[in-house]
Design a protein that fits this description.
This protein has three helices and six strands. By secondary structure, it is α+β, with helices and mostly antiparallel strands. It has one domain. The longest helix is centred in the last third of the chain and has 7 residues. It is globular and about 40 Å long.
Length: 111
């Protein structure tokens, strides 16, 4: 994937949050321009991993199983794509959130 495939050119990414490491984000967000529909935070894999994973909520299992359909990016980059995630980024490992349809709010998923 080249930088030109991203919806937001790298030179237009602004510093919106305090650096917190990298995350995994679906191409449906960064390439197709969809909003974050589902976000969760899992145990970190390495020092600079924030634990955050961002999906549009429309990904099929087949899509998720293809490693080419997601990227490892700085969390700040995802915040530039969807500022609605920012108030939730300090939530702890184990947090699972889904977007409230038609809004910029997320709600916790019950276990």
């Amino acid at each position: 994937m080249t930088d030109s495939e991203f919806k937001i050119p790298i030179e237009n990414i602004k510093d919106l949050i305090v650096p917190m490491g990298f995350c995994l984000v679906s191409n449906k967000i960064t390439v197709d321009g969809m909003q974050v529909g589902f976000m969760y935070r899992e145990k970190i894999f390495e020092k600079d991993d924030s634990g955050w994973r961002f999906l549009s909520g429309t990904e099929s299992q087949e899509y998720l199983d293809d490693p080419k359909t997601a990227k490892i990016l700085d969390v700040n980059t995802v915040a530039n794509y969807d500022k609605a995630i920012i108030p939730y980024l300090k939530m702890p490992v184990g947090t699972e959130l889904e977007r409230v349809e038609g809004s910029n709010e997320f709600r916790k998923l019950e276990e």
